[in-house]
């Protein structure tokens, strides 16, 4: 009897331990989430309100890195690496090169106060509404790590989304040829 | 301590290390600036104009190429993980994916787009 009681006690302790671990994970995860959210939102505000468009581009890089941190907080290390490599490593550089390409007289203008202000306002509210709407249809998921995440992603990509996967290839092809022909027009390669 | 906790500690220590070192060195170093010291290259080229020159369009082109083949390489990773369990089907899928981009690469290569003139 005493043995069973001890085992039961032990079992309770273990259960409590798992529960405590989850609470601790949730807490440190929300600390990480909120600090990253502050970073991302302040970087995004800097992108919109800075007068120097080159500095705005640099703050965009900060926002991209913050999003990579969010993926780490969600235990999706693959997406975090993708975000850091593609968005921070390649897209941000592409945007900065694009800024350096433009004519000098376009640069001095304040990006947040121009003729497209109202169009941009309406568009961004539309996108925000669309995002909020799509988030509402999501079920609240678990923040705890998913087993074999990369395997599941690969399966989804190769089976459920096989056609979109091939369309991505066509999209990349169009982007490559489009950029090439645009650049060639400018300076006869 | 869980993974997120470790990340938080790394983040905090990393940021504090940089700030702390800046503060420490500001206490220790002498501060006697002059015009020569504050020049961009203290003993080198005299800089002229601004750094904001108009870049050559080729930089942009190569950045685009990098983005596209970066994305292509990243799709290989989840594919490689499931290749064994899906077999020939996934293999053919990836062949089509790579073939389309390969055509684009050959086209650009033939037209001399990969040369840095």
Helix and strand content put the structural class of chain B at mainly alpha
Helix content of chain B: 55-70%
Name given to the CATH homologous superfamily of the largest domain in chain A: NADH-ubiquinone/plastoquinone oxidoreductase chain 6, subunit NuoJ
- CATH-derived topology of the largest domain in chain A: Four Helix Bundle (Hemerythrin (Met), subunit A)
Low-pLDDT residue spans of chain B:
none
Could you say what the CATH architecture of the largest domain in chain A is? Up-down Bundle
Weakly predicted, low-confidence segments of chain A: none
What series of H and E elements makes up the topology of chain B?
Answer: HHH
Q: What is the makeup of the main sheet of chain A? A: none
Mean pLDDT of chain A, rounded to whole units?
Answer: 80
The quaternary state of the protein chains shown equals heterodimer
- Give the C-alpha Rg of chain B: 25 Å
CATH class of the largest domain in chain A: Mainly Alpha
Largest sheet of chain B: none
Output mean pLDDT of chain B.
86
Which structural class do the helices and strands of chain A define? mainly alpha
Order of helices and strands of chain A: HHHHHHH
Number of helices of chain A: 7
Percent helix of chain A, as a range, is over 70%
Number of helices of chain B: 3
Rg of chain A, nearest Å = 24 Å
Can you offer a commentary on this structure?
The complex is a heterodimer of chains A (189) and B (117). Chain A is an all-alpha fold. Chain A folds into 2 domains: 2-106, Four Helix Bundle (Hemerythrin (Met), subunit A) (Up-down Bundle); 148-189. Helix content of chain A is 82%, strand content 0%. Chain A is built from 7 helices and no strands. In chain A, helix 1 runs antiparallel to helix 2, helix 2 runs antiparallel to helix 3 (77-101) and helix 6 packs across helix 7. Chain B is mostly helical and 117 residues long. Chain B has a domain at 57-111. Chain B has helices spanning 3-28, 57-86, 88-110. In chain B, helix 2 packs antiparallel against helix 3. The longest helix of chain B has 30 residues, at 57-86. Chain B is flat, with a radius of gyration of 25 Å. The model of chain B has no long low-confidence stretch (mean pLDDT 86). The interface between A and B is large, with 55 and 53 residues.
């Amino acid at each position: 009897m005493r043995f069973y009681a001890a085992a039961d006690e032990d079992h309770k302790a273990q259960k409590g331990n798992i529960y405590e671990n989850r609470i601790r994970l949730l807490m440190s995860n929300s600390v990480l989430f909120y600090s990253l959210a502050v970073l991302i939102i302040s970087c995004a505000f800097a992108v919109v309100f800075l007068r120097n468009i080159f500095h705005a581009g640099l703050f965009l890089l900060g926002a991209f890195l913050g999003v990579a941190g969010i993926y780490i907080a969600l235990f999706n290390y693959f997406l975090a690496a993708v975000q850091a490599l593609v968005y921070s490593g390649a897209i941000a550089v592409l945007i900065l090169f694009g800024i350096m390409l433009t004519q000098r007289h376009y640069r001095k203008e304040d990006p947040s106060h121009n003729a497209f202000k109202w169009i941009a306002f309406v568009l961004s509210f539309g996108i925000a509404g669309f995002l909020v709407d799509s988030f509402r249809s999501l079920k609240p998921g678990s923040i705890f790590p998913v087993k074999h995440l990369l395997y599941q992603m690969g399966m989804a990509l190769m089976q459920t989304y096989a056609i979109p996967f091939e369309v991505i290839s066509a999209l990349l092809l169009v982007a490559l040829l489009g950029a090439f022909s645009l650049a060639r027009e400018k300076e006869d390669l | 301590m869980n993974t997120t906790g470790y990340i938080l500690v790394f983040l905090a220590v990393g940021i504090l290390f940089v700030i702390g070192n800046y503060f420490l060195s500001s206490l220790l170093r002498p501060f006697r600036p002059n015009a020569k010291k504050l020049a961009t290259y203290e003993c080198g080229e005299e800089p002229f104009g601004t750094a904001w020159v108009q870049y050559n369009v080729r930089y942009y082109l190569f950045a685009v190429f990098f983005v596209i083949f970066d994305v292509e390489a990243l799709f290989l990773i989840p594919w490689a993980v499931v290749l064994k369990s899906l077999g020939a089907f996934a293999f053919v899928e990836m062949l089509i994916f790579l073939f389309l981009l390969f055509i684009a690469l050959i086209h650009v290569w033939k037209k001399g787009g990969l040369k840095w003139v």
